[in-house]
Amino acid sequence: MSAIQSEIRRGAYYDSVVLMQLQRELAALPGVLDAGVVMGTDANKDILIQSDLLTPEAQAAGADDLIIVVKAESEAAAQDALAQVDALLTQRQSSAAQEGYRPKSIESAAEMLPDAQWVLVSVAGQYAAGVARKGLELGKHIFLFSDNVSLEDEVSLKQEARDRGLLVMGPDCGTAIVDGVGLGFANKVRKGAIGVVAASGTGLQQVTARIHQLGAGVTHGLGTGGRDLKEEVGAITALQALDVFRRDPDTRVIVIISKPPAERVARNLLRAARATSKPVVVDFIGFEPDKAVDGNLHFARTLDEAAEMAVALLNDLPEEAPAPEASPFAPGQKYLRGLFSGGTLAYEALLILRDMLPNLYANLHLDGVADLANPMQSQANTIVDLGEDVFTVGRLHPMMDNDLRIRRLHQEAADPETALILLDVVLGYGSHPDPASELAPAIGEARQQAEAAGRHLEFVAIVVGTDEDPQDMAAQIETLEAAGVKVFTSNQEGVAYAGQRVQPLNPLTEGQPVALESLRGPLSAINVGLEIFAESLKDQGAEVMWVDWRPPAGGNERLAAILARMRG
Amino acid sequence: MSAIQSEIRRGAYYDSVVLMQLQRELAALPGVLDAGVVMGTDANKDILIQSDLLTPEAQAAGADDLIIVVKAESEAAAQDALAQVDALLTQRQSSAAQEGYRPKSIESAAEMLPDAQWVLVSVAGQYAAGVARKGLELGKHIFLFSDNVSLEDEVSLKQEARDRGLLVMGPDCGTAIVDGVGLGFANKVRKGAIGVVAASGTGLQQVTARIHQLGAGVTHGLGTGGRDLKEEVGAITALQALDVFRRDPDTRVIVIISKPPAERVARNLLRAARATSKPVVVDFIGFEPDKAVDGNLHFARTLDEAAEMAVALLNDLPEEAPAPEASPFAPGQKYLRGLFSGGTLAYEALLILRDMLPNLYANLHLDGVADLANPMQSQANTIVDLGEDVFTVGRLHPMMDNDLRIRRLHQEAADPETALILLDVVLGYGSHPDPASELAPAIGEARQQAEAAGRHLEFVAIVVGTDEDPQDMAAQIETLEAAGVKVFTSNQEGVAYAGQRVQPLNPLTEGQPVALESLRGPLSAINVGLEIFAESLKDQGAEVMWVDWRPPAGGNERLAAILARMRG
After folding, report:
1. In angstroms, rounded to a whole number, what is the distance separating the alpha carbons of residues B396 and B269?
2. Is the pLDDT of residue A121 over 90?
3. What mean pLDDT is predicted for residues B7-31?
4. CATH number for A273
5. Would residue A436 count as lying in a domain?
6. Which position among A246, A263, B84, B143 has the lowest Cβ density within 10 Å, counted as fewest Cβ atoms?
7. Of A65, A81, A97, which closes a domain?
8. B253 and B219 in contact (C-beta within 8 Å)?
């Protein structure tokens, strides 16, 4: 015979560690056979059923209520156990109090530890977003271990972080390594030259551990949380992490680990990976890529292989990283403007640039390319087909008449954000008899005006034609080159070259860049939630301030809502 | 200080060359800083805004109105310039008139140049379909440069052309090369052995120019217009072009260039490409194929690669094209009839033949295969599964009982359109103990009757079995071969062989075939629209008659509509 007794505490909040420990302590009491201490969610009730611990009282509890169940050898033993709950809870509190003063809020913790770059959040899901938001307001990066955070909160937190040049790793981020210090769950990995971005906690652990075993090390292992690469979130954190690794001179090889992302997100991520100009190992776990190598991208099929490829790529690099080339462009010059007369050439250019440049616009429809709001006005990186119907009503095709294209060329050249203008020059019968004679002077003039304004403007032309065309192809090329134009006869090569020129000018992500210094040097953190994370940071030599955090209104949501309304 | 003056001419039609030249002449007048001469569309008004040339008058103009704007150093200079508009227009008219008599209609041009194979149409979009239709009625191929033509007009023009054995290239067809002569925009490309089909003008230019640069040449470069491969048009022109290249002995390698087409259209096009039995390079721009080579199809990813692959394939061919094999079949024999006892064998046969033969019917459902209206009656190319329920009510399965199949075999053999009969012969336990003993005499009889009627009937059998089957597989095969049957033991090989035998008998497209001679020899054309196309044809040694074309009612659409109603 055994007896079950339960107690329900309405609207009470306890740290999940406290609940776990209370359950263990109850179960260890004399005469007690088993105990359950859980919040009254449906899932938890199911777990109680499995353990034969669900009482009618517990069944009736709500998700905000704390259920305490004890199964004992006798009614008396069960009652004795329940009678000790308050004492056990108080005892835990006082032992914590012995450690000295603990701030009650993130704000006061931040005043006590002003250099803290990080806030670690591991409170229950419904409070986590609020805590994280406060951390962002204080200018801290967030390591958000908590799960059960809504997708809407994740998106708004990450957008705010991006605008402030801060990282939100998570929610449900198990692991990160920042300049040698592990946050959350992390292995002890030596410092080195491999940067890892991971939407997977144990993936990050497996890969960084393997890198260490192979004798190499990591600059940072940046976690993103498992949902970062979903369409709704759009890889905000992963793109920031890639941007960090692009700019960080200590990072020489990059690894990306994730389950296969949404197609549009994968395209953006791979475009950003290409734009880092560093070797990038990509492991979209379980995804079979078409080819093993694509430019600077190297596709791995397993976590082990990802680590091995990264180390091999690192070992193949020269010992010294090359000094970065100084940019000839003025600050603010960022964009490519392609003014095409040939529709298919424009289309192929888009296909090539779509994999290279963010914020690509056109007056042609293509997945992953935005429609120009007004074809007369370029936006960010733009490819415009000037042979489209809208331009040719009562006007000659731009292959015959350079007037419209020259006007547009001057318009683009006058835009301080334009860095490079891309043109096709299609020779042959029917086309203008001497297009270079009109384009070259306009280009020369545009370049001079830009230079006078302190800007450096580049021109790339793709000349399509044959040596037997009426225009004299060689002379056309010579005239354009004399005007300072870089000339190609292959559309593919010319467009790829132009894309590579402006790639370094385009940020990988919107918002403010994350300051590299904020990830370097002695790590200092405010811990809100599980004590164990504060302890492990201390063990690693980091400074930590552990906040004695309580939910608003002691976890009573109805009361908290009333308070919020009264303040509002 | 500068002054802007404008003038609006309502409902006036001018050739776009006239407008361009008027604009240039105005801009060159003393004291004039800039000029704009455009039809009053919204897009053109936007362009005037960009150039700081939009006046309130111009803003108020309609799409049918001609806007003339002059920006000059003074009011007087602007007025002087505008005062010269009529003189400048008249001067252009009279200079054109000096070139001698020009016919006012296509009909009279066709009388003056009866050998003309082509009508080039580059008038404004709203008139282009009408001009093209007249050209078709006169038995001419159409090169339709004009854009802004409706999809409905395109479909009806192309259907009519196909019925007449004529080509309609376009609308919005920028480029074609016919036997060395460029139409529209085209490079001077040497003649050679590569035929190019392109739904893309500059794609055709880039590929043919590259072919030339690589030392090879083209037979024809046939443009289709960008919408030809849309579901609604169904690749009518592209299929005609493939049919031309299949029959043209001078074309030894074929290139297809297009944006990725609709799936059903792509399947038809690739089937036709396979049926050419020549190496075909396919560049569905931006489409990543599963495999690089599939039989005679070779997939390219860029325009450059397409040209390079075509030249490499050509160089790999023996110097002399093999003499085409004389067909053993009588005219009118076209179709394959497959009489299967095994359902899965029939289904696999359909999967293979779907990629090889047009007009494929069956009593099994499969995408891209039509349902037989009556399973007892074959249509065009037919695969019938005689084991289907409808055939086996109160009857033994055809693997056990040959009666139904032999009756059907005689029925197919008597059809003068049947060229080949395909059978499966499934041995093993449960099957007929000696199927060849019944099938072989029936086949012999059917072949004799066909020969007596002047036809050549072929039989292909797939024998499925093992050397330990009760029927003696080797003896079964021997008996069938003795009756003149081509025997396979692999379903895939047997079906593919049968498909290949009838492939040359099946047209790639409906309607009349385009006469190869109409694309060869001295090119002669009627030009309606831009003068430059007439001039470039003359430069290339072609004969041209340039029609002094005017729109109905001088371009006044309301008046034209009234006239049309009065005539109607």
Report:
1. 41
2. yes
3. 83
4. 3.40.50.261
5. yes
6. A263
7. A97
8. no
Residues 6+ apart with CB under 8 A from A200: A226, A257, A258, A259, A285
Q: What pLDDT score does A24 carry? A: 82
Please state the rounded mean pLDDT for residues B537-566.
Answer: 77
Shared-domain flag, residues B383 and B433: yes
Question: Could you tell me the two tokens for A60?
Answer: 């009736």
DSSP H helical ranges for A376-520: 403-414, 435-452, 473-482, 491-502
Would you place residue A554 in the very low, low, confident or very high pLDDT band (cuts 50, 70, 90)?
low
- Name the domain boundary from A64, A97, A130: A97
Using CA coordinates, name the residue in chain B closest to A385: B202
Alpha-carbon span B512 to B161, nearest angstrom: 9
Tell which of B52, B67, B121, B206 to mutate to test the A interface (max A CBs under 10 Å).
Answer: B206
* Residue A112 vs residue A550, higher pLDDT: A112
- Scanning B178-337, the segments in alpha helix (DSSP H) are 201-213, 236-247, 263-275, 303-316
Confidence band for B97, pLDDT divided at 50, 70 and 90: very low
Q: Domain check: are B45 and B139 in the same one?
A: no
Q: Report the CATH number that the domain containing residue B149 is assigned in CATH.
A: 3.40.50.720
Distances (CA, A) of B367 to A71, B267, B446: 64, 11, 33
Establish, for the pair of chains A and B, how many residue pairs have beta carbons separated by less than 8 Å: 163
Sort out which chain A residues have CB atoms less than 8 A from B169's CB and list them: none
**Residues B175, B196: Cα–Cα separation, whole Å:** 11
Predicted-complex ipTM score: 0.72
Does A135 score more than 90 pLDDT?
A: yes
**B276 vs B531, which has greater pLDDT?**
B276
Tell me the residue range of the domain where A532 lies.
101-172+523-568
In this structure, is residue A282 part of a structural domain?
A: yes
Which phi and psi (to 5°) does residue B220 adopt? -140, 150
Q: Report the C-alpha gap between A526 and A513 in whole angstroms.
A: 23
Length of chain A: 568
Q: How far apart are CA B403 and CA A461, in angstroms?
A: 73
Cβ–Cβ of B185/A430 closer than 8 Å?
A: yes
Q: Which residue out of A360, A395, A409, A473 would a mutagenesis test of the B interface target, given it has the greatest number of B Cβ atoms within 10 Å? A: A395
Domain match, A411 and A487 both: yes
| Residue numbers in B near A351 (CB within 8 A) | 285-286
Residue A556 sits in the same domain as residue A420: no
Q: Which candidate from B19, B51, B537 shows the least CB-CB separation from A394?
A: B19
Q: Is residue B192 one of the residues assigned to a domain?
A: yes
* pLDDT per residue as tens digits for the range A373-430: 999 999 999 999 999 888 877 788 899 999 999 999 999 999 999 999 999 999 999 8
Does any domain span residue A367? yes
- Answer whether B187 sits within 8 Å of A464, measured CB to CB: yes
**Rounded Cα distance, B391 and A233, in Å:** 58
- CA nearest A377 in B: which residue? B50
Say if residue B357 is in the same domain as residue B311: no
Residues A345 and A494 in one domain: yes
Mean pLDDT for chain B? 89
Instruction: Pick B186's closest partner by Cβ from A342, A343, A430.
Output: A430
pLDDT at A232: 94
> What is d(CA A555, CA A318) in angstroms, rounded to the nearest whole number?
57
Backbone angles phi, psi at B461, to 5 degrees: -125, 140
Question: What confidence tier does B367 reach under pLDDT thresholds 50, 70, 90?
Answer: confident
A165 Rama sector, left if φ>0, alpha if ψ -120 to 50, beta otherwise: left
Option in B182, B288, B304 nearest A429 (CB): B182
Does residue A292 share a domain with residue A213?
yes
Give how many domains chain B has, as a whole number.
4
Option in A351, A404, A407 nearest B286 (CB): A351
CATH of the domain at A47: 3.30.1360
Closest B-chain CA to A289: B290
